[in-house]
Design brief:
Keywords: ATP-binding, Ligase, Nucleotide-binding. This is ATP-grasp domain-containing protein. It holds the Pfam family ATP-grasp_3. This protein is of the alpha+beta class and about 400 residues long. Among the domains are: about 100 residues, Rossmann fold; about 70 residues, Dna Ligase, domain 1 (2-Layer Sandwich), CATH 3.30.1490; about 90 residues, Pyrimidine nucleoside phosphorylase-like, C-terminal domain (Aldehyde Oxidoreductase, domain 3, Alpha-Beta Complex). An eight-stranded antiparallel sheet has the order 13-12-9-10-11-16-20-18, sandwiched between helices. The protein has a four-stranded parallel sheet with strand order 3-2-1-4. Strands 5-8-6-7 form a four-stranded antiparallel sheet, sandwiched between helices. Helix 1 links the parallel strand 1 and strand 2. The longest helix is centred in the C-terminal third of the chain and has 19 residues. The radius of gyration is 21 Å and the shape is globular.
């Protein structure tokens, strides 16, 4: 019998799940909860590409469909996917513990409870309630971020306790963030020094397989020191990365993740070793899953197909078969985007390592300086057998895109 899945709110890279599953003879139905999509991330989805559009979540009707799995197609679908899988009696993660996988404060509490390295964290609300705990964090630098968010949205760096206190009043209180949640609480956390890694795992009960491991390279843009520059793909079999993998597996258990995808960001701290920043039970966002198709075997998308159709995950971690990078273009100044001209497009497509590029903005749009993933104007993904050639090609990409995005600066 043909396998069948219900994909909930596929946005961003969640759109890549359907074609891979359909290519493996898996029926893909879809449900859109567009009322809780503040940034319109679901607007770009072509419903006609799915086998069926589910418009009403009537459990009796869904049970008759005999689904094999419910998949969260983005952060917007995690909570609902947990709930539906439970109500349909399908493999999934308990809706009773969804908070461990959505609420960043609960995540850190879970790490602490299970004896794992964690980030000192406390909550603060609009009137400053909770700030009295600031003196309990023994550090000099701090991070402020929403309890629920994604894409580095509304993440702020503070150099002192006074900076934290002064920043509280100017936070985007009451605004709806990209996950459809109201910013009614923010986290204040100790700033962890170190290198940032991201791991993608797939889980089936007691079995956890590492599908991809990458390293973020970030830099300064304006007042934000955490703007993404690159994502570098690493080898899961690198012995030096074993402590990171072991910690990620333990953190996965601490968050009560029993089924499906895990996307985890962590720091390798000289003082603490690996320590989780946050985790999500959905596909790696952006263009990375497309790059993984060229660089890892089996790829992230391949393992989703195996989980659904064969009810298993690979026994061994994925292998790195080609060097890969995602380049995030940083727009350093406010600018009006006049489009990618034919000459620049031709130059980009002649670069040997280039797989593809994606412009996130529309022609004629006035661009702010890049502050986070939502203000990154262009992503480029590249792969090459030779790391030196790959780096050379990335420099050429940056040169071309600097010409594209800095043509018409907007006066202050």
């Amino acid at each position: 019998m043909r396998s069948k899945v219900l994909i909930v709110n596929p946005a961003s890279s969640g759109k890549m799940i359907r074609p891979k599953l359909q290519a493996n003879n898996i029926q893909c139905d879809v449900y859109f909860d567009s009322e809780h999509d503040p940034k319109g991330m679901l607007d770009t989805i072509n419903i006609e590409n799915y086998d069926n559009n589910v418009s009403h979540l009537e459990i009796d009707a869904l049970q008759n469909e005999k689904y094999d799995a419910v998949i969260a197609g983005s952060e917007l679908g995690v909570e609902l996917a947990d709930k539906l899988a439970s109500e349909l009696g399908l493999p999934g993660n308990s809706p009773l513990t969804t908070g461990l996988r959505r609420n960043k404060n609960e995540m850190q509490d879970a790490l602490k409870k299970h004896g794992l390295a964690y980030i000192q964290t406390f909550l603060v609300d609009m009137d400053g309630k909770g700030l009295n705990e600031l003196h309990e964090i023994k550090c000099k630098k701090y991070i402020i971020k929403p309890v629920n968010s994604a894409g580095s949205e509304n993440v702020y760096f503070c150099n002192s306790r006074d900076d934290v206190i002064n920043k509280i009043s100017s936070l985007p209180w009451g605004k709806i963030n990209s996950t459809g949640k109201i910013n009614d609480q923010f986290l204040v956390q100790e700033f962890i020094e170190g290198e940032e890694y991201v791991l993608d795992l797939i889980v089936n009960g007691d079995q956890i397989t590492l599908v991809a491991i990458c390293k973020y390279v970030k830099g300064q843009s304006g007042n934000n020191p955490f703007v993404y520059n690159r994502l570098e793909l690493l080898d899961p079999y690198d012995a030096g990365l074993a402590p990171i993998r072991e910690y990620a597996v333990a953190a996965t258990r601490a968050l009560d993740i029993r089924y499906g995808l895990v996307h985890m960001e962590l720091m390798l701290s000289p003082a603490k070793g690996p320590v989780m920043i946050e985790a999500a039970t959905r596909i790696h966002g952006g263009v990375a899953p497309s790059l993984f198709e060229s660089c890892y075997s089996p790829s992230l998308l391949d393992t989703i197909a195996s989980l659904v159709s064969e009810h298993r995950v690979p026994e061994l971690d994925s292998k790195l078969v080609k060097q890969g990078r995602v380049y995030f273009h940083v727009n350093k100044h406010a600018a009006k985007f006049s489009g990618v001209d034919t000459i620049s497009d031709s130059k980009l497509k002649r670069i040997p390592s280039l797989i593809d590029y994606f412009v996130t903005v529309k022609e004629g749009q006035v661009l702010p300086a890049t502050e986070d993933l939502f203000t990154c104007p262009c992503l480029v993904w590249l792969a090459n057998d030779n790391a030196f050639d790959l780096e050379s090609d990335i420099k050429e990409v940056e040169h071309v895109l600097n010409g594209v995005f800095n043509k018409e600066l907007v006066s202050a």
